[in-house]
Amino acid sequence: MEHHPLAVRLVEAANTTSQHQGSGYLLKVVLVVMVLGCALTGWFLLRGYKRNDD
């Protein structure tokens, strides 16, 4: 099996980062993205219910 240098460097960087910071940073990113996604989805769905009384 042939290893690609870029893939090996990415895996090593991920391992180094996870050893130093733990899973706290990843959890924060996931939560922020989830909250923003829910807010944008709600805005998109609810904007269609606006009535035009022209």
Question: What layout of secondary structure does this protein have?
Answer:
Elements (H helix, E strand, L loop, with lengths): L4 H17 L2 H23 L8
Question: How would you describe this protein?
Answer:
The chain crosses the membrane at residues 25-46. Keywords: Membrane, Transmembrane, Transmembrane helix. The structure is a single chain. The protein is mainly α. It has a domain at 23-54. It has helices spanning 5-21, 24-46. The longest helix is centred in the middle third of the chain and has 23 residues, at 24-46.
Q: Separation of termini? A: 67 Å
Biggest β-sheet strands, sense, barrel: none
How many alpha or pi helices? 2
- Indicate the overall shape: elongated
Whole-number radius of gyration?
Answer: 21 Å
- Rounded average pLDDT: 77
Which class best fits the helix and strand makeup? mainly alpha
Number of strands: 0
Helix content: over 70%
Succession of helices and strands: HH
Contiguous low-pLDDT stretches (5 residues minimum) are none
Which percent band covers the strand fraction?
Answer: under 5%
Keywords: Membrane, Transmembrane, Transmembrane helix
